[in-house]
Amino acid sequence: MGDRRMPAEHCTLVRILGESVRPGERRTLDLQVARLYTRTPVEIPVVVQRGPQEGPALLLLAGVHGDEINGIETVRLVMDELKVRPLERGTLIAIPILNVFGFLALRRELPDGRDLNRFFPGSAHGSLASRLAHALVTEVLPAVDVTIDLHSGADQRHNHPHLRYTGGDTRSLALARVFDPPLLLRAAVRPKSIREHLVRQGRAYVLFEGGRARSLDEDAVRVGLRGITRVMEHLGLWKGPSDMARGAVHLSQSKWVRAPMAGIFHPTAENGSHVARGMVLGFITDPYGEQVRHVKSPLEGHILCVNTSPVVNHGDALMHIAYDAP
Ligand SMILES: [Zn+2]
């Protein structure tokens, strides 16, 4: 048998960003979109690792929002693991920070204030957001079969680790089941998001939410890493499975519980926990020691997200409760 290498012309090439990547090869390519107004070129590194055998291509995407750190760390840990656990087959494409522009300033948006995830599939001649979306859509996504997009809660919102998939999309639901998150939320597609683009193309896509922006949450990273590992084993990129599925709690609807008055918010219910209707979720106090108002859950469900801001205005979203409804 021996180690006989196929001549290069017989190898199936994965083409990405105009470059060819051969079986067993690892390359760091650059997605070039624009220069900053300082003329500084901005390159977005795209790491492509191929296994020795043919197989599906998995995209790990993080940093679509420049202030969401948990996904960046999760992708780093997967790449670190590859050093001791090489791919068996297929291709791993890792973009740890898509919105490099936002990451430089630890901001969700691009420098022009636009949310990248509202500009897909983008255009070659549009705004910076539109151009970046277009570059990803035309130069990377054609090589991708399965996408895991990693996010965290915006601002002060702390998301309990959960996975979102698109209702009616059986490919993405199957992928979500393999990922096996603690909570699984069926969510409507946002217009012009990367999810809308990929679902329209019939590609499997799930969105992982965990922790909050501008913070590193070990629990979110651990749950994300476990799910990605399970997907990689399922696709045959790694040998597996390494652990048993625990079974996700399925949720299909969600509702925000809002502040009944302005003041200091003291959450008492644990993020991710199951709550009964009428259960106390926390309380709000006024700074002068005159008022205390309990915040009760209007429905039975699971807490998906908690507002960690200590000071809230009347009507502010406090806790996001998700439940299952036919
Ligand atoms: Zn995000």
List the keywords.
326 residues, alpha+beta, Aminopeptidase, OB fold (Dihydrolipoamide Acetyltransferase, E2P), 2 domains, 13-stranded mixed beta sheet, four-stranded antiparallel beta sheet, 6 helices, 20% helix, disordered N terminus, binds zinc ion
Topology, element by element:
Layout: E1 14-16, E2 19-21, E3 26-35, E4 41-50, E5 53-62, H1 69-82, E6 89-95, H2 100-104, H3 128-139, E7 146-153, E8 157-166, H4 170-179, E9 183-187, H5 194-200, E10 204-212, H6 218-235, E11 249-251, E12 253-258, E13 263-267, E14 274-275, E15 280-285, E16 292-296, E17 301-307, E18 311-312, E19 317-323
Parallel strand pairs: 5-6, 5-7, 7-10, 8-9, 9-11
Antiparallel strand pairs: 1-2, 3-4, 4-6, 8-10, 8-17, 12-19, 13-15, 13-18, 14-17, 15-16, 17-19
Bound molecules: zinc ion.
Protein architecture, described:
With 326 residues, the protein is of the alpha+beta class. The protein folds into two domains: 8-249, Zn peptidases (Aminopeptidase, 3-Layer(aba) Sandwich); 253-323, RNA polymerase II/Efflux pump adaptor protein, barrel-sandwich hybrid domain (OB fold (Dihydrolipoamide Acetyltransferase, E2P), Beta Barrel), CATH 2.40.50.100. The chain is built from six helices and 19 strands. The longest helix has 18 residues, at 218-235. The chain is globular. The structure holds zinc ion. Zinc ion binds at residues 64-65, 68, 151.
